[in-house]
Specification:
Helix content is about 30%, strand content about 25%. By secondary structure, it is of the alpha+beta class. The chain is globular.
């Protein structure tokens, strides 16, 4: 299969007449395709892959097929050429889980084949033309802070993975739905949780919910945002008080971001740092101390202005 040569920030789809058996969409300039003879599955895929307009090319980068064998009523079979994921081929008990497998496989492919962007383990939010990335190790509180900012009126674009153009200083969310663990239910609130469950693309797993936040507002899904700040939680060697913010110089910020950059940290050290440095020379970075959640939200908003 041939990769599309130009990156775009647009996600697209093409679901034609009723006899059509595929859905096509684009992410970061690459075109993906899913085939099935199951019409309900295709309609679900149309929503899951956050579609807006037809794909303007016949070239396809990655293709999957999902079928429900007549001799196996308990499984959906997901197949396709995959050099980068252990998930394909796979079996799924439901249509919803089969689509989750494709989301993950598409993401795995992008992590290994998106040369113009760095992939960072971070949450991404935006408001009024300003984007922020929240970076930190597992259980540092990224999702909790991101959810609190979302409740404050920020757009939640991604909860754990961001693609960043370090020259243009723009960020795009991971091409998959946002997840909320059941532990976040009290933070989200019962009313909003119920609204999330009712959104068209939401599914519930043993750990929580997968959903598209933009379906709650009816607005078009944001595909790219200028970055106005990078916030580190629990950065190694950081010395910062509860809910306090300390600015980092570009060199220290670049070194701190390197371990969280999936497709850069495997490069020789100097090459990886060279990829990251242009971003932190233009976008301010901060240590943010763990503390009262409302105080942390206020600290972020005050730093961004």
């Amino acid at each position: 299969m041939t990769a599309v040569s130009r990156r775009t920030s647009e996600t697209a789809y093409d679901l034609g007449p009723s006899e059509q058996t595929l859905v096509r969409w684009s992410e970061l300039g690459f075109v993906f395709e899913m085939k099935s003879s199951d019409r309900k599955l295709l309609e679900m895929a149309q929503g899951v892959f956050s579609v807006q307009s037809p794909v303007a090319t016949d070239m396809t980068t990655r293709c999957w097929t999902i079928e429900h064998p007549l001799d196996d009523t308990e499984a959906w079979i997901v197949s396709g050429v995959s050099e980068t994921s252990s998930m394909i081929p796979s079996r799924a008990e439901t249509r919803e889980i089969a689509l989750l497998h494709i989301e993950q496989d598409a993401l795995d492919w992008l992590l290994n084949n998106a040369p113009d962007a760095i992939a960072v383990h971070a949450a991404l939010l935006s408001r009024d033309g300003k984007g922020i990335a929240i970076v930190g190790p597992s259980f540092a509180g990224k999702s909790t802070l991101a959810t609190a900012l979302w409740r404050r009126g920020w757009s939640l674009m991604s909860d754990d993975l961001v693609f960043i153009d370090t020259i243009a200083c723009t960020a795009s969310p991971a091409p998959r739905r946002v997840s909320l663990r059941f532990e976040s239910k009290d933070l989200v609130g019962e009313s909003l949780w119920i609204d999330i469950v009712a959104t068209p693309s939401c599914i519930e797993t043993s750990k929580g919910l997968f959903f598209h936040p933009h379906e709650l507002t009816g607005h078009e899904k944001a595909r790219v945002t200028p970055l106005s700040g990078v916030f580190f939680l629990s950065r190694r060697e950081a010395s910062v008080g509860a809910a306090e913010i300390h600015a980092l110089n570009p060199a220290k910020a670049s070194l701190s971001l390197l371990p969280y950059s999936f497709n850069v940290r495997t490069l020789p050290f100097v090459d990886g740092l060279r990829r990251i440095t242009p971003l932190l020379e233009q976008v301010p970075a901060f240590d943010l101390g763990r503390g009262d959640l409302q105080s942390m939200v206020n600290a972020v908003e005050n730093a961004i202005g």
